[in-house]
Design goal:
It is a single chain. The protein is an all-alpha fold and about 90 residues long. The chain has one domain (about 10-85). The chain has three helices and no strands. The protein has helices spanning about 10-30, 35-60, 65-85. The N and C termini lie far apart (about 60 Å).
């Protein structure tokens, strides 16, 4: 018996954009104090960088190299964050 595999269509650009918006909304809803400000700031940066990283990796030429592009973009983002936090 042959199984028919249904392909799910994921609009990841749209979903990551919506995720970023929800993260920003959550961060704005937190009470303002020293701890929450720090957590909120980091959460907003990491939550919104997901969409940016996906879009940058998605601009690659082929689907075959897409996973490698994602890893490269993530590594580049980490280096940028580490570099800016040590200044």
């Amino acid at each position: 018996m042959e199984k028919v595999q249904k392909t799910k269509i994921y609009d990841l650009e749209k979903r990551t954009l919506e995720y970023g918006k929800r993260i920003i909304h959550l961060c704005r809803s937190l009470s303002k104090d020293t701890i929450n400000n720090t957590i909120s700031s980091q959460l907003a940066r990491s939550g919104t960088s997901l969409g940016a990283n996906y879009r940058e990796a998605n601009e690659t030429v082929t689907k075959k190299i897409f996973p490698f592009a994602c890893a490269f973009v993530e590594k580049k983002e980490k280096k940028r964050y580490i570099g800016s936090s040590s200044s």
